[in-house]
Each structure stands twice: as structure tokens, then as C-alpha cells.
Amino acid sequence: MSYPVLSHCLPPRTADKSVILCIGGSDSIAMAGIQMDSRCSASLGLHCVTAITAVTAQTNHALVSLNPVSSRALKQQVESGLSLHPKAIKIGLLASIEQVYLLADLLAHCSVPITLDPVLATSSKGNTATDFMITAMVEQLLPLCTLVTPNIPEAKRLLKLGDNDESDPWQLAQKLQALGVPWVVVKGGHETISSANQTHVHDYIAGPEQLFSLSQPRIKTHHNRGTGCALASSLSSLMALGYEVRDALIIGKMMMQAALEAAQGIDGQQGCVAPQGFPSRHWPEYADQCINKNLKPLTFPTCVGHGEPEQLGLYPIVDSTDWLERVLSQGVTTAQLRVKELQGTALQTEIGRAVAVAKRHQCRLFINDHWRQAIAAGAYSVHLGQEDLQAANLSAIAKSGLRLGISNHSHFELAKTLTIQPSYIACGPIFTTTTKVMPWIPYGMDGLDYWCKSLLGRPLVAIAGIDAGNIAAISATGVSGIALITCITKALNPEQMTRHLLQQIEANRT
Hints:
This protein is of the alpha/beta class. It has 17 helices and 18 strands. Helix content is 34%, strand content 19%. Strand 11, helix 9 (321-328) and strand 12 form a beta-alpha-beta unit. The two termini are 40 Å apart.
């Protein structure tokens, strides 16, 4: 799947369930394998069709037996599953080299994302793959996959490296990617515990022009069986729901943290992770090693409370100081200046005028994009889009004392933004907008409610498609700011419309 795609914050509501095909082994005690795959996909509302590669007998302590199914039986299962047109395919345990070649043949022309979780040993510590099988997997299956999810020992085996090889996880991920798979997640749960990673678990991700890690606090639980199966099937399920790989990675990590948190023992013995469905908590920490190396934790002043108004409120976006004067004269206390046509001295002069007007009206004015000019003019704040984060000197903005707002459209963008800890977070599109073409499905009210709950405690600005007909409902969600453009600038009487919108927000504020 290429990016950008029509991604979304919540799984879309459809008349029919989306289908995922999970290919792997049956776990006799139902803590991993196909049983875990089915639970993960069901928690996200998908229908999981299965193809069993082997029937295992295992306990919490040992793999008792591994009983491969025949090639004929596996072929019939896969073909039956494909008849329901799955939106994604997840491959787990493979029990013979014949199965590797069979799947490579059956899936050669599939156009849906394929995730390979290379199960080279079971949770009960039984080895399942020979060196010949591993070679076949690398040569035959990896080139068909969108994503592969080995842990560190599995990554080394796929690369034919010894256990004592000192390649770091970044190198392992990049070496695997070089074998022909677009996305690699090297899971860090098997890292040797050291002072550097004792408190957090790190996953290392390589993708097209991407190299980053996602980390979360290590949950100390004995009930952690099935983690590898759960992550891979969750990621595959999310791609089946239409999520781009990077968004799926963020959501999948959130799901895993919730599943570990909810894990329980079984019959007084070790238990497994417990999928909880689509998550709204447990955002992972993002650290970029590639194009966004400047994204790091910074401190930006707040823009609400602590001497500021408690809410951002109505947030008009205007393209000139003249328009700024018009909306501020009606009682607006937050605005954004988005100047696209001016350059050089003319741009600096316009921003300087706007800053002076905003100070006179005690307005929180955010300057869009032009952070250097904003610093020079002594502005209150800057607003940046995702595409601006790579080029902007965020440390200089923070050092200047300016507030910072950042636009966001998806889980992946939000994970990056939360690393920076800006003054506010803008989320959209809430509704369809004609202002710009966007590759994201509008969130609607359900999506906005989700962001409000998921980003609890952080100032949130709703944007896109908001007008006089829906602003009351938007305000009732408790969102801090409501940004809009054409509802005011194209109104027959912009001043009257501004006053009306302010009244609607005040009347419906929770």
C-alpha cells in the first residue's frame, strides 16, 4: 500500500465485515498461533478466515509435538480463504519447506498487504524451522510481503547471523529490508535488559525512506505469551481496515500495551496477552533516525490556562492583517495568519503589522509556516504543518519562547507530534472541505470524540469543514479550539457571522 492513502482515525463503519486470512499453526492451549490471531482480528471487528499449517501440542513449558498438515490440505484451506477476498493476509508458523514453496506460489499474485511473522520457535521454546526452510522463506516469501515482524533472535536467523553477532537492531532491520520487503519491524522485547532499555521496550522499524523506533514502558507481567502473534495479526488486521502501514504500527503498539496490561494468568499458570480492541490510550514514543532527526522532546509554553483563557475558542484563519482586524474587532481571542503570496520584506512587514494588531486586541495569534519571521517580529506563536517539521528549527522556536501548534491527520503524525509536546494539537479533517485536497477520510463527530478522549489533557483544535451548521455540535465535544476559514471569509456579513459563531460556541461549551 502506498502513502498517502485514505486513512482514518476510527475503523470505518461498513455493511459487511472486512476479512483477514491468517495462515499459521494451531496452539493446543490457545495462547498463541491461529487462536490468538482470531482473537486479535475479532477485537477489531474483522472476520478471520484461517488456514492451519500444523496442529501443535504444547504446554507452558514445552513443545510436545508439531504435526504439519499435508500440502493438499493447506492448499485447499488457503484457496477457500481467498474465496472471501481477504483485505490482508498474515502468515505465522510454517511447518515444512514444502509449505513455504506452496504459499509462495498461491500468493504470488495477491494484491493485498501480506505480513510475515517468522515463527522460528514457539512460545514454549520449541524450534520449528530448519536452515533450509529459513532460506526458502527469505527467497520465496519475503519479496511478496508488505511487512515482516521478527524479534531480534529471529532477525539474526533470517540473516544467517550467529547468536553472538553484534549487529544493532537498526542494522538488522535495514539488512532485512534490503532483501526485498518494504517494511521491517524488529521487535525489541528480547533485548538483553540493560540500564538503557530496562524501563522501556523498543521496536525498530525500517520502511521506504523511514527509520524510526517506537518505545513504550515495559509492563512487568509473567502473562505475556502470544505477543508476537498478537502484534503481527493486529497490524495485518489494521491494514485490512485500510490503515497505511505507519498508522497501523502506531495503533498496533497501542493495542499491544493494552493487551499486556489486561493479561491474566490461566489456572494459576502463565497466561497470554488479552486483545482489547481499538485503542485510545498508550501512545508509543517516537524516535526518528532518518528524515525527522530534529523531532525530539522540547518545551513549549502553554496557550491555555496559567494566565491565558482556559480555551482557544473560535479560531479564524485569515490571510491578511486587514482580515485579522475584522475578526478581532468582534471579540475573537485566537487567530491564525496564513500568508501564502508575500515574500521578503513585504512578508516580514505584514507579519509585523499582524503581531501589533494582535497585541493591541490581546489575541493569541499563530503565524502559519513562517517561523523565522515570527521570531523576528516577536510573535506569540507559530503553527506548522507536518510537511514543515523537517525544515523548521524547532529548538530555535522553543528557545525564542514562542508557542507552537501542529497540524495532524493520522495516528502516525500524532505520534511524531506528541514527541515534540507542542502548545496545541490540531486534528482534521473533521468534515469534507473545499479549502484543500486531503487524502484522509473526514473524521466526523465520532472521530472527533475519539481524538478528544485519546488526547485527554492536551489542547485540541478541530479543523476542516466546520461551519455555522455544525459548530454547536463541535463545541459540545469539549474541544479547546475550533478553526475555520471560509465560513467567515465568504459570509455575506463576516462580522455578523463571527459574532454568531462566538455565541454558538459559548452556548454549547461543555
